[in-house]
Write a structure and sequence with these properties.
The protein is mostly helical. It is built from 4 helices and no strands. The relative contact order is 0.05. This is Lipoprotein.
Length: 175
């Protein structure tokens, strides 16, 4: 009997040691227990409790990560709303500036047209003044000119010079 008992004890001890080795948290899955010995080892060695603690820790970490992600999402959403409001304000300012720019362009075009018109008048008056001065020189060169004709030509020249000065003054040009 002694012989039978010793191999049984050795076999039993081997199975217990093998079961204990299988009783780690990684190997203990209550849904997929491979043998009675592994199940026994997981129960006795605390493998099931360790696995449960590991699963709970992983779950807490995932919940915390999800909460962090939700907080980040809310923060990003708030930033996006602020940016949208800022964009609306900038668009309104841009529209106002574009309207101001269009009004300035109209004023510039108006002043340019007025200046072009005044330049044309100035050119015409200068030509007339030049003609009047030439006529005066011709009249003075001729001996048969009366003092009244000379005075009339000088008056016409003075009026044209005054008109040229007025136009230049309106244009802001000092001659």
């Amino acid at each position: 009997m002694k012989r039978f008992t010793t191999p049984a004890i050795v076999l039993g001890a081997t199975l217990v040691v093998a079961g204990c080795a299988a009783g780690t948290a990684e190997n203990c899955d209550a849904l997929n227990a491979n043998s009675v010995f592994q199940d026994f080892a997981c129960k006795q060695g605390g493998g099931y409790e360790e696995r449960l603690a590991l699963i709970r820790a992983e779950t807490r970490a995932k919940v915390a990560s999800t909460q962090l992600t939700a907080a980040e999402t809310a923060e990003l959403q708030a930033e996006a709303e602020v940016m949208a409001r800022d964009a609306d304000v900038l668009e309104d300012r841009l529209a106002g500036l574009n309207a101001d720019l269009a009004a300035m362009r109209l004023r510039i075009d108006s002043v340019t047209a007025r200046n072009d018109s005044q330049r044309a008048q100035l050119t015409a008056l200068r030509e007339e003044l030049s003609e009047a001065e030439q006529n005066l020189a011709q009249v003075q060169a001729a001996a048969s000119v009366t003092p009244e004709q000379i005075a009339a030509l000088q008056g016409e020249i003075a009026r044209k010079k005054a008109a040229v000065s007025d136009i230049l003054g309106n244009m802001g040009v000092v001659e």
